[in-house]
Amino acid sequence: MIKAVNSVDLISEANVIKQGDTVNSFTVKLYDKDGAPVDVSGSNVTWNLFDDDGRVIADRAVTKESEPGVITLGISSTDSTGHGTFEVEIKVESSAGTEFFPAEGKFFITINRNSENLEETPVAYATLTYFQDSVDETKANSQQAVETADEAKVTADNAKQQSSSTQTQLDQIVVDGDSSVEAAQARVRDIKGETKTFTTLKERNDDTDSKLRDITVNIKQNGALGDGSDDTAAIQSVLDTYAGKTILIPYGSSFNVTSLTIPLNTQIIGYGAKIYNDSTHSTIINLETGVEIIGLEIEGLGNSSYNSSGIGIGIKGTWNSTLRVINYVQDIKLTDCYIHDLGAYGIHAEYARNIKVSGGKIQHVGYAGIGGLSVDNVHVFNKMHIKEVSPGTSGNTYGVFFSRKSTTDDLEELPHSQNCSVSGCTIEDAPLWEALDTHGGQNIEFLNNTIRNCKVGIAFVSIDDLDSNPLYAPKKCKAHGNDIQGIGTGVGIIATGAITAVGSPVEYADRISIQGNTLTECGIKGNDAAGAIEIYGTRGASIVGNTSIDSYPHGISIYHTNQGFTVQGNTIVDPQDETVVIVSGVVIRSTHNSGVVSGNSFIKVKESTTSLNVAKRGIYLASQSNNLIHVGPNYNTFEIKQNGLEGQAVRFNSEMGNSSFGQFAGLGSPEGNITAPMGSTYINRGGGAGSTFYIKESGSGNTGWVAK
């Protein structure tokens, strides 16, 4: 399970200021692991601003706002922050101990340089990041080093490569050949206590430039034109020549390519830069193991129609049929990328593992924002935004899916996708099909996401065999804490096993957990088996603590072939439908179900009209056949509290201490009809004096009932 113990949300709607700005500040909100605001009223709250080399602001007190969890961070006139992108860490000290925010991901603020520091003072400021232990800070000095300093600006301002300020928090760079004490200081390089004095500023700059070029490369200074012509060959040459290093794509630049391959262990930094292909559908960027891409925009030919070749980023390993092993592409990081206008996928991964997709946006894609086939340990998080997925193919579109191909039933060649998650993200505007999906996945988690304007919110479903028959079911999957806003054409959350015949699954969907979700207007209008949540072919399903409002036509649908389910602590408000009359809070719609319904709240707020049925039944058992439902206490204000809960199929509050007696209800005498242990009770809903209440006083079968 992947779940951070806390998180931070920027609510001031801006995290970029100019160097020297002491007016504007940053307002954030602190949340605990369940998404609730953290009460900091009695705590000591401070913040740090830092990069890889050290802290720029240390243990600065925050301003606590009146709203719970909300604090404001400010820069003072005495801070020598320089400019660049810096990471923020917030420390909360209370009587319980110390907690740091955020626990997962990073929270950045950006400080851009201003013209005063460049033109009106004798001292200029610049920042560089070194990507090796041997180069921890860079100092740009003199007018002759303008080109190097400009490269540094791109590195710092636009690449989130935090400024080097460990020793002095931004060294002063002396220009125009000054021979003062400051100039002498600038000729000294001090890295982790090891100093070297240069004869001239130029010698110092040349040394700095040499070290920088050893580890970073600017593609525009190595043959790529960025003028709209095809730059594929030039950029690929740079990538191959400098494989394993950091490649800078300059801010504001744009390069037309056919398809590129990023080689092993190479880092691409491209804030404000774009790679595009506006002539053909292709996989624009292919990744090898160990690649990291930060801040890059990737644009394709468009998604006016589905085209399977249109892929923004491809991460594809191979199957070695001789050795029968998978050669995974792995250890990939994609951060703050904007991927859009592709015929099929934003990101397509196959035979890939240890993939992290953090932040950024995927928009206008033809089939799926992110698709994973036989992938392991893929995690999408930190407010990734996926929207406008269309037109799809074969009736399908996805925000994110984790699945496997069905070209063989061999799990060695095509394993289940497993150990993957989508958390804290937004998926919207995919009305053709599903926002989040796994086909036959194992240990797949969808946590704390927002889903809007999608036909189906979350789907845990089976994968077919070669003949298109259900074969493998999902297992140990979780949908927790999601906010799903439906459109009345698909269920909010569905879990199904591999099953073609009622009561005879090929494989159960095992240990599915659906907890703490909020579902609004989910379900299928006019479909009497649907609901905000629907399950069939499951074993050990847990549906706990969810809230359903205005669902169609049921809140929770226990359809068929569900063994050992739990429906507990849910709040169901106003299930509704124009044509289905039996709108219910919880419906056991068909047969071969066993489980518990207890501790739920069924709340009727709206009134039914001649054209809309609202909250008719709290709990509805549609069939007595092959069902055994244990019903505990529930709070219920629906028109009919329960319907069909009678006979052998239902036990009320059936466990007390070490007893196993049952509490039954029905029409007519239980004698010869209801099998129960001694001590069980029965209420005849059609009885009269002496024939309404029965106790099982003897026997172990369906006899021994005595009317009282």
Give a written overview of the molecule:
The protein has 5 domains: 6-112, Immunoglobulin-like (Sandwich), CATH 2.60.40.10; 113-276, no CATH class; 277-485, Pectate Lyase C-like (3 Solenoid); 491-645; 650-708, no CATH class. The strands form 12 sheets. The chain has a 26-stranded parallel β-sheet that branches. It has an 18-stranded parallel β-sheet that branches. Strands 2, 4, 5, 8, 9 and 10 form a 6-stranded mixed β-sheet that branches. The protein has 708 residues and is mainly beta. Strand 6 (63-64) and strand 7 (70-74) form a beta hairpin. 7% of the residues lie in helices and 45% in strands. The protein is elongated. The two termini are 54 Å apart. It contains 5 helices and 72 strands.
What is the makeup of the main sheet?
26 strands, parallel
Beta strands, count: 72
**Class of secondary structure makeup:** mainly beta
Unreliable stretches, pLDDT < 50, 5 or more residues? 117-179
Q: Which strand-content bin applies to the residues? A: over 45%
Form type: elongated
CATH superfamily of the largest domain: Single-stranded right-handed beta-helix, Pectin lyase-like
Q: What value does the average pLDDT take?
A: 85
Question: Roughly how much helix do the residues carry, as a percent range?
Answer: under 10%
Counted up, domains total 5
